[in-house]
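Long-time lurker, finally posting.

We've been working with NAD(P)H-binding (Pseudomonas prosekii) and I want a structural starting point before designing mutants. I don't trust myself to interpret raw outputs, so I'm hoping someone here can both generate the structure tokens and explain anything notable. Sequence follows.
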Amino acid sequence: MSKVFIIGAAGRVGRRLIKQLVGRGHEAIALHRNPEQGSELAALGATSVKGNLLELDPVQMARLMSGVDAVVFTAGAGGAGMDLTNAIDGRGLELAVAATIQAGVRRFILVSAFPDALRGGPVSEGFENYIAVKKRADAHLVGTGLDWVIVRPGTLLDDTGSGKIRADVAIPYGEVSRDDVAATLAELIDQPNVSRVIIELTQGDTPVSDAVRRLAQERCSP
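Top reply, 14 upvotes:
Generated this for you. Predicted structure of NAD(P)H-binding:
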């Protein structure tokens, strides 16, 4: 069993991830901002921990994640404006990385963004900023000595997951259900040999466990 600290646990991917982790026998430690979220996350099987990503410093967050085996960062501003994007997706990620290092945790999984997202239509200044912030966050994490994995899902859907994905370092752009993103994140906890790799993720034909196992085998190959 692993203890997994989830930043962004109250979000649509985060809640699904809690269910996945608990179902696999792991302990999900869910960071949340609002008091009412604590009882909701506990009902999903998580251990809820109150804390605001925008108010904590690295030392405070490190105390909250003390003793965990892995951190999953799936927080995001969700289109709430450039200032919040900069604060949560940008500075929030940097804070979480600093706290992870301070806490002595090695494994860090980041949910990022597919670089080709929405390139087929009009792109706003806010969206361009979002992609730029995500890229800087990715680069920041890659520059650390952590045991990191970056997952870049395509357009996120609330449809029921199929349990089948396409996952590799570079794939054509597409859609993917939040269910299948959460399943992939949980599988990355179960398969720690996948390390220091950026994974693009869409719906596909390969069962999640097989897709992640193939990535692990490729990473271990000479």
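Before you design anything, note these points.
The chain is about 40% helix and 25% strand.
The mean pLDDT is 92.
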